Amino acid sequence: MARTTLTRTVLAAVSVASLFALSACASDAGGEPAGGGETAGGGADDGVITLGFSQVGAESGWRAANTKSIQDTLTTENGFDLKFSDAQQKQENQIQAIRSYITQGVDVIAFSPVVETGWDPVLQEAKAAGIPVILTDRAVDSSDETLYESFIGSDFVKEGEMAGEWVAEQYDGEGFKAVELQGTTGAAPAIDRKEGFESAIEGTDVEIIDSQTGNFTRAEGKTVMEGFLNKHDDIDLVFAHNDDMGLGAIEAIEAAGMTPGEDIKIVTIDAVKDGMQALADGKINYIVECNPLLGPDLAEIAKKVIAGEEVEKRIVVEDLAFDQESAKEALPTREY
Ligand code: GYE
Question: pTM (2 decimals)?
Fold first, then answer.
């Protein structure tokens, strides 16, 4: 960071410290004396882009990889002063973090919205302060597209469809009974993956007999799967909206004396290391990828926005899919 930017950055860091004490863990540098606040946002006239990022939480392997990508890319060497906060899967924490970034007068705000709805007021506040907003990973459900510059992330409906198409191909005609472990209620990937999967199995004899949220975590995936196993003795397949919940389901299935991947087939989304290992080990049957390495795209878009260049409103990240054989091949060189 250039010396000239220090005063403003330090002021920002200190003024926000008390706000963050209430909510999430801010991983920002600070510690020098400050004496007031600054509110004019947007610009980076000092050459360093101060970017406030509000992350969903630390709920999954995917999220850990996503956080690492952002922190590894938005570095001082790369021209950024990154302010990062973790909302612990709570919308109110994210709103509070975004408000604090507005008060600090950061140049850009980026966030991955935990749920789809309820963002218009805080986005309007950012707009009124002249601070551009970039969405990463998850979408917001807003009728006003001028409230953000760009949305960078995967097509979750397509991911659900890819999972459902594979299930239909493999198991249609066998009267399969499936259970679904949904992501966080109201989150874009939970809504969209469900929709995509359901549309792909429509017209087949694969039937979803139960569906509940496991909040994208391994622990809740396990608990919900235990409940499903107590309630139903005819489960053939688990569709989990992410690897972590699938990994929790594996634990529940094994504890019930069954073999995951054989007695009960498992299909998940993400393709992070632990999921891919379980796939290669035969405990998961198929994984649709969701690429978490969004840092480079975010850096590029933020730079363009600050330079006043036009950016694409929607940047779709392309995803692959893996079966047990291709997982074995991909694992050694996998980045996440
Ligand atoms: O699939 C899941 C994470 O929003 C795409 O969030 C992301 C999802 C991801 O918790 O593992």
Answer: 0.87
